[in-house]
Design brief:
It is built from eleven helices and eight strands. It has about 250 residues and is of the alpha/beta class. Strands 1-2-3-4-5-6-7-8 form an eight-stranded parallel beta barrel, surrounded by six helices. The radius of gyration is 17 Å and the shape is globular. The chain has helices at about 15-25, 30-40, 60-65, 80-90, 110-130, 140-150, 165-170, 175-190, 205-210, 220-230, 230-245; strands at about 10, 45-50, 70-75, 95, 130-135, 160-165, 190-195, 215-220. β4 (about 95), α5 and β5 form a beta-alpha-beta unit.
Length: about 250
């Protein structure tokens, strides 16, 4: 992170597709929404291609690879089907996330104590294909230590995203400190540090202020807010809140 504290925003457009899939229509188009978000100042776009295809579809990802001007961050489970698709599409980044079919949204980070070998194999395949890899981790410095060990052993992950869900549900000093300590551990290990999950303009400031955090991945609040304001204005509102939080 540079000293100017220019925290980047990656806009998750999954829930544009959620609305479309509710009617199996051709609108609203998450690809068009991605263009609106970037035009409003987003540095990149995030989508999660789930095994059940509940929102984002394969054609959406293929189109986004062609049209996103910044970084396209593709969230996937460390499954053979998804890894093969990512290698074919070549997004700017893949973030490996845990996934359960019956969850409403991603419920927690990867547990590298129990899944380390499987995750390492996925990292190695994706990195060999020229794709930068990030992992979605809970705010726990021990998980960062395990990731650093995987990298040292030859699984070249670029970084990780801190799951901010616990903080957004209970913005206590302890929950914020867990995010801060995890971010600091990542920076000390030479890893890129991102954060996201449940962030809104009301709670983003403290996360944007963490020195090691380079990028925030935000979706549900932005798409919800866009119902009233339009996506461009919602993105600008979020960027303003992030900038205010990042001020020394």
């Amino acid at each position: 992170m540079s000293d100017d504290r220019a925290v980047q925003l990656s806009v998750n457009v999954d829930h544009v597709a959620t609305l479309r899939q509710a009617r199996r229509a051709v609108y609203p188009d998450p690809v068009e929404a991605a263009g609106d978000a970037e035009a409003a100042g987003a540095a990149g776009i995030t989508v999660h291609l789930r095994g059940d295809r509940r929102h984002i579809q394969d054609d959406d990802v293929a189109a986004l690879v062609r049209t996103v001007q910044g970084k396209l961050n593709l969230e996937i489970a460390a499954e053979e089907e998804m890894i093969a698709l990512a290698l074919d599409w070549q997004p700017g980044q893949v973030t490996l996330v845990p996934e359960r079919p019956d969850e409403v949204t991603t419920e927690g980070g990867l547990d590298l104590a129990s899944q380390g070998d499987r995750v390492a194999a996925a990292i190695e395949r994706l990195a060999a294909g020229g794709i930068a890899v990030s992992l979605f981790l809970d705010p726990d410095p021990a998980q960062v230590e395990r990731l650093a060990a995987l990298v040292a052993a030859g699984a070249p992950a670029a970084g990780f995203e801190i799951n901010t869900d616990a903080y957004t549900k209970d913005p206590s000093a302890a929950n914020l400190r867990a995010v801060e300590e995890t971010a600091a551990a990542g920076a000390a290990a030479g890893l890129e540090v991102y954060a996201g999950h449940g962030l809104t303009t009301a709670n983003v400031g403290a996360i944007a202020a963490i020195p090691a955090v380079e990028e925030l991945n935000i979706g549900h609040w932005l798409i919800s807010r866009s119902v009233r304001l339009g996506l461009g204005e919602a993105v600008r509102e979020m960027l303003s809140a992030m900038a205010a939080g990042a001020q020394p």
